[in-house]
Design a protein that fits this description.
With about 150 residues, this protein is of the alpha+beta class. It has helices at about 5-15, 20-30, 65-70, 105-120; strands at about 40-45, 55-60, 75-80, 80-85, 85-90, 130-135, 145. The protein has one domain.
């Protein structure tokens, strides 16, 4: 699969799963402690580079454990898991060793664009904190993205 096709298929799956991500983001925004200094929407591509991932909200500020524990129930926006019936959600998988492009970079760039859309539709008025989309280990050609 070429990069353009991969990105298109991935974006379709993400768009189909926007409602849950938006619900969790809004719930998280309602429970951010006053001590938080900024918000990061963190993209974690899988270690093998096949195309699975998770995205969660992380807070910065004093006593990170306490801050992030306060949003733990809603901080996961989307996560790809292996089930007996296949991947959920059904994202396209790639062989990172047989690909003409860097799968993790493409994945993170698509997720970054999608997260921008989620943010635009969120209850962003609930916070005035700085919000940044970042990817683990610096993946993505268009990241970080500052939102607020």
């Amino acid at each position: 699969m070429e990069e353009t096709e991969y990105k298109s298929k991935l974006r379709r799956v993400l768009d189909e799963n926007s409602k849950v991500a938006l619900t969790n983001l809004n719930a998280t925004l309602r429970t951010i402690p006053k001590a938080a200094k900024s918000i990061e929407l963190m993209i974690f591509p899988d270690q093998d580079g096949e195309g699975t991932f998770s995205v969660s909200v992380s807070l910065t500020g004093p006593d990170l454990y306490i801050l992030n524990s306060s949003i733990n129930e809603t901080s996961e926006l989307i996560s790809v898991i292996h089930t007996p019936n296949g991947l959920q959600p059904k994202v396209p998988l790639m062989d990172p060793f047989d690909s003409e492009f860097e799968v993790k970079d493409a994945l993170c760039d698509v997720l970054g664009e999608w997260l921008e859309t989620i943010w635009i539709n969120s209850d962003k008025h609930l916070t005035n904190l700085a919000v940044t989309i970042v990817a683990d280990e610096g993946y993505g050609q268009s990241l970080p993205i500052k939102l607020n």
